[in-house]
Design a protein that fits this description.
This protein is an alpha/beta fold and 384 residues long. Helix 1 links the parallel strand 2 and strand 3. The N and C termini lie far apart (47 Å).
């Protein structure tokens, strides 16, 4: 008989904790682990099930970098900050590998490629390659690959991140959750975070926790609990399909059209294709987590471009991501009328790159909460 690690309690009552983490996605689970290893009694509460949000329903990229290519990131954030961000994502993957994600059946150690499909993107990707090498990063260039992506797409070239990987996201989440001393409390929606003496009272569906601090890691959904985050984190819907394409091989995980589209192959040969949100940006917002025909049609058209026409769609899904205005994560205390002491914190806003950033970013968040350590994301909270 298999016993689940993630079971809803019949009745929690009133319990004590050193830290309550809200949200059992990649960020919340990682934060809980980091805090636990510093000796804290940590409780994780989740209103649905582990990985019910975008952390469990994404394309499974473990790649270096963020939403922008390196050249664009340098222009947006400055060279030093862009380099620090890229190194953070490298540490993120190193940390997940140290946790054992490489042993999971859904993980592939496979390079990722920024695939240029038109001349304007080609110039930016080449510029990114030069800058990355100048800043000490391992990066390569490919003119013509041998797999299906190159045979069908008309790609002009690509920047290779050789140390990347891909994963089955739910397998990663279950691995991390299994390392916690206490199981995730599923089906426990946070009703209120309020003051209780010098600490906090976190009321949930079946009880409450008394704790000196709380860390909200619900990403796009955080403004529903903390209205102070409204406008700082915005919900955007991402959509994907998975297909069977007999005889098709992909040697890398690919990002194309300035990151708007992406596709990769799983260990069993299934191919995941996603994106096309940017063509319908004004419609793909909000908390309505569903697939939409306009995006799905575009994803299938893109899949035909890069894979050919001989594939069968076997599934479709979506996930609501948390975007920030500057595309950088937020780590910050949330100022409430009764709390100026930094007891409630938020970590999130990964702009579609939570798997590549949240493990390491949550470590910085725990350090900031406990020690006041700098995170590199100060000022990125949009005034929360």
């Amino acid at each position: 008989m298999t016993v689940s690690l993630w079971q809803r309690s019949e009745r929690l009552g009133v319990q004590d904790a050193d830290l309550v983490v809200v949200g059992a996605g990649i960020c919340g689970l990682s934060a809980a682990l980091h805090a636990q290893r510093r000796g804290l009694r940590v409780r994780v509460v989740e209103r649905h099930r582990l990985g019910a949000g975008a952390s469990g329903r994404n394309a499974g990229f473990l790649m270096r970098g963020c939403a922008d290519n390196y050249a664009d990131a340098v222009r947006a954030y400055g060279r030093t900050h862009a380099a620090e961000l890229w190194r953070l994502t490298e540490r993120n993957l190193q940390g997940l590998r140290a946790e054992g994600v490489g042993s999971l059946p859904g993980t592939r150690d496979v390079p990722s490629v920024l695939l240029a499909l038109e001349e304007g993107e080609l110039a930016k990707v080449r510029e990114s390659l030069t800058m990355l090498r100048e800043d000490g990063f391992d990066a390569a260039w490919i003119e013509k690959g041998r797999d299906a992506a190159w045979a069908n797409s008309g790609a002009l070239g690509g920047l290779v991140n050789p140390g990347d990987a891909s994963c089955h996201s739910l397998q990663v989440l279950r691995l991390l959750a299994g390392k916690l001393e206490r199981p995730v409390e599923e089906g426990q929606e946070v009703v209120e975070i309020g003051e209780s003496g010098s600490g906090l009272r976190v009321r949930v569906t079946d009880g409450e926790f008394r704790t000196p601090r709380a860390l909200v890691c619900t990403n796009a959904y955080a403004p529903l609990l903390l209205p102070e985050l409204e406008g700082g984190v915005e919900p955007r819907r991402g959509q994907m399909i998975f297909v069977r394409a007999h005889g098709v091989r992909l040697d890398a995980s690919y990002y194309a059209n300035h990151g708007s589209e992406y596709f990769r192959q799983t260990p069993d040969g299934t191919i995941v294709v996603g994106g096309c949100r940017t063509y319908h940006a004004d419609r793909e917002v909000g908390y309505d987590d569903r697939v939409t025909p306009w995006v799905q049609t575009d994803i299938e058209a893109f899949a035909r471009r890069v894979l050919g026409s001989g594939f069968e769609v076997q599934g479709r899904w979506s996930g609501v991501m948390g975007f920030t205005k500057n595309h950088l994560p937020i780590i910050a205390p949330v100022c409430r009328a009764w709390d100026r002491g930094g007891r409630v914190w938020f970590c999130g806003g990964f702009t579609g790159h939570g798997m590549s950033m949240a493990y390491e970013t949550s470590r910085l968040a725990v350090g900031a909460m406990l020690d006041g350590s700098p995170t590199g994301f100060e000022g990125g909270a949009g005034g929360i």
